[in-house]
Every structure is written in C-alpha cells, then in structure tokens.
Amino acid sequence: MKRIANSIRNFLVSEDCPTAVEYAVMLALIIVVCLAAVSTVGTRANDKFTAVGGYLT
Asked: What pTM was estimated for this model as a whole?
C-alpha cells in the first residue's frame, strides 16, 4: 500500500505533471474545434440536401 502511495506522490510532485496538463488542455481545444467544424459542415450539407430535394420534387 505504501508503494502505491509513494508512486502517486511521486507522480504529483514530478515535473511531468504540468506537461500532462498542457497536453490535456490542447486536446480539449482540438476537440472543441473539431466539433465546431463538424457541426458547421453538417449544417451546410443539410442545407444543400434540402435544396436538392426541393428541386427534385
């Protein structure tokens, strides 16, 4: 049990932790940008399909 507590403490004290946080923030921003892009493309594609469907009927 002490071994697990020591490894957790070492992880939290380690200098790699800020780097991991920076990577997590970058990943979150990338995900937000991707979701926005997919939403925009999906809306525009829906508009085009609706217009084409209107011409066919």
From this structure: 0.56
